[in-house]
Amino acid sequence: GLANSIFCNKNVKIIELFQGLNDATFWYLSQELNFDYHPIQTIDFNPNYIDAWQQHTYMPTDVIEKILATITLK
Q1: Do 70 and 40 form a contact (C-beta atoms < 8 A)?
Q2: How many helices (H) does the chain have, and how many strands (E)?
Q3: Selection from 58, 67, 66, 70 nearest residue 40 by Cα
Q4: φ/ψ bin of 19: left (φ > 0), alpha (ψ from -120 to 50), beta (otherwise)
Q5: pLDDT values of the chain reduced to their tens digit, one per residue, 74 residues
Q6: Do the Cβ atoms of 16 and 37 come closer than 8 Å?
Q7: Which helix (H) or strand (E) element contains residue 65?
Q8: Element containing residue 36 per DSSP (H, E)
Q9: Which helix (H) or strand (E) segment is 4 a member of?
């Protein structure tokens, strides 16, 4: 879902909701392109790759709203 971020303007904020996979791909991409990157871990990481893909991600919207409120707009 974030692969198209390579075409974003330089002043973009990237907010990634992590599932059970520990994957830093978009963090690295954001570092290289100087994006304002904010990861949100929704569930504990699962070392079993297959199980991690099958896990559901749940996050209450009030939690997301609180996190978004802490991110300053430029």
Answers
A1: no
A2: 3, 2
A3: 67
A4: beta
A5: 788 888 888 888 888 887 777 778 888 888 999 998 888 877 777 788 777 777 777 777 887 788 778 876 55
A6: yes
A7: helix 61-70
A8: strand 36-41
A9: none
pTM for the complete prediction? 0.66
Q: Report helix, strand or coil for 32.
A: helix
Residue carrying the six token digits 């209450």:
60
**CB of 35 within 8 A of CB of 51?**
no
Reduce the DSSP state of residue 12 to 3 states and report it.
coil
Q: pLDDT value at position 63?
A: 77
Q: For residue 38, which of 9, 62, 7, 73 has the smallest C-alpha distance?
A: 73
Q: What one-letter code names the amino acid at 67?
A: I
Q: Which amino acid is at 46?
A: N
Give ∠ CA 67-7-19 in degrees, rounded to 5.
40
